[in-house]
Specification:
The chain contains 14 helices and 23 strands. Helix 4 runs parallel beside helix 6 and helix 8 (232-245) runs parallel beside helix 10 (307-314). By secondary structure, the protein is an alpha+beta fold. It starts with a strand and ends with a strand. The structure holds ligand EPZ. Ligand EPZ binds at residues 22-23, 26, 93, 119-126, 160, 162-165, 186, 304-305, 327-328, 370-371, 398.
């Protein structure tokens, strides 16, 4: 078990290289089983969620090769349609493998992905969408067993613009008979990246980002070499860190439109932000004013994946901030750890009220989920004195070289055996 030792109180300066987006790479890896030809993905981050997904692919019979930051998936010998329970429990978002495995094998079996540290994570929208495509689904003994002699295009309306359900249905529809329309589809940039990836494999998909995705089934898909979009959540995490610690940093590779909601709030906090192409420069004195209200919403609203990090920033902003978490039921587990550092945070259901304090002080804190862990590191960077952040396995799920990148920005953070 490792921990971070952090000396807080330093400003951050420099440029942060941004990894390929975790939430783009995962569905692209799922899509790689759609063809028996080779798929090459570049710039793939070494994070445990990706390792788990690669392990799932190899359990299906794919041959995985790593070369520098690239991954080659050879699905020619993929034979199994059963997703290994031990792995899908680790990586519940692997549920969108159902769509691609069904397209490849016309059947798929997955253990019911349970809830996780941020919420119940139901999959009803995934399953109802697949049923609309003619997939027979049996749920028994904790497994979801799917089969479909023929997948037929359908008109599907999602009750909620679920990212995973949109992706699952896209992956199940690419070789269906006829046209599939997904209404109230998620608009996240990762959906557009999946559409671009599928198009480059020879699929016929359009409308990603508009809320209505239209897929015309094709006969076959071919191999592809592809570079996923960069991680808007990693970029947002570094920008929030520099905003509350003070300093001047630049992120590269993420466009303003992909994190516009965050930039709008950081400007409200008093940060100076300039954008040139895909370079975002932030300057901050570190003494921020509160933004009063932040509501997490589906894209293009404020991303739930930056809620925890932004709450950490609000802990020392002048004034009171109200944060409403509208996507997940229990995404405030980190709040108790922030209070150990002197933050004044009151959580009631989906709302957190944060009264800004002058300074946080160092403490020993433990991460309980991926983005909450990043929030604790941000608070430690901004606190006076030394902090220890434990249970880094959560952070390792989504941030590659996290302490190295922060050190590169001038932070005093090191990873040691706990
Ligand atoms: C994706 O999760 C991301 N994960 C999450 O990022 C992100 O927080 C989330 O989208 C929202 O943006 C990946 O892309 C791998 P949803 P997903 O389906 O697809 C409800 C991170 O930190 N819902 O859009 O699981 C659900 O309960 C992770 O990187 C149903 O009710 O999110 C939630 O309230 C965390 N029924 C809401 O929709 C369903 O069938 C949003 O979930 C599916 C979802």
């Amino acid at each position: 078990m490792d921990k971070f030792i952090v000396q807080g109180g330093l400003k951050l300066f420099g440029a942060a290289e941004i990894q390929a987006a975790k939430n783009a790479v995962l569905p692209l890896l799922a899509a790689s089983v759609l063809t028996d030809e080779k798929v090459i993905l570049h710039n793939v981050p070494s994070i445990s969620d990706v390792e788990n997904m690669l392990h799932i692919l190899s359990e299906l019979g794919c041959v995985i090769t790593r070369a520098q930051g690239s991954v080659i998936i050879d699905g020619k010998n993929a034979v199994s349609h059963e997703l290994p329970a031990s792995l899908t429990r680790e990586l519940r978002s692997s549920v969108f493998m159902l769509g691609s495995v069904l397209t490849r094998f016309h059947r798929a079996k997955i253990s019911y992905p349970g809830g996780c540290d941020i919420g119940l994570r139901p999959i009803d929208l995934h399953l109802s969408g697949l049923k609309r495509l003619g997939v027979t689904i049996i749920e028994e003994n904790g497994y979801v067993i799917c089969s479909a002699d023929k997948i037929r295009g359908a008109d599907i309306l999602l009750d909620f613009p679920s990212v995973g359900a949109t992706e699952n249905i896209m992956l199940a529809a690419v070789k269906a008979e006829g046209e599939t329309v997904i209404r109230n589809a998620a608009k996240e940039p990762e959906i557009a990246d999946l559409q671009n990836f599928l198009l480059s494999m020879g699929a016929k998909v359009k409308g990603a980002g508009s809320g209505t995705v239209i897929i015309e089934g094709v006969k076959a898909l071919h191999g592809v070499e592809y570079t996923p979009i960069r991680d808007r959540i990693e970029a947002g995490t570094f920008l929030i860190a520099a905003a509350c610690c003070g300093g001047e940093i630049e992120t590269r590779g993420v466009t303003e439109e992909n994190i516009a909601a965050l930039l709008h709030k950081l400007r409200e906090n008093g940060c100076k932000i300039t954008v040139k192409g895909d370079k975002i420069r932030l300057q901050s004195s570190g003494r921020l004013k509160s933004a009063s209200l932040v509501q997490t919403l589906p894209f293009p609203g404020f991303p739930t994946d930056l809620q925890a990090q932004y709450t950490a920033l609000s802990a020392t902003a002048r004034g009171t901030t109200v944060v409403e978490e509208n996507l997940f039921e229990t995404r405030y587990k980190y709040a108790g750890e922030l209070k150990k550092m002197g933050a004044d945070v009151t959580v009631r259901g989906r709302t957190a009220v944060i009264r800004g304090v002058d300074k946080l002080h160092g403490a020993s804190v433990t991460a309980s989920d991926l983005r909450g862990g990043a929030a604790l590191v941000i608070a430690a960077l901004n606190a006076e004195g030394e902090s220890n952040v434990f249970d880094l396995s959560h952070i390792d799920r989504g941030y590659a070289l996290f302490s190295e990148k922060l050190s590169g920005l001038g932070a005093r953070i090191r990873r040691v055996k706990a």
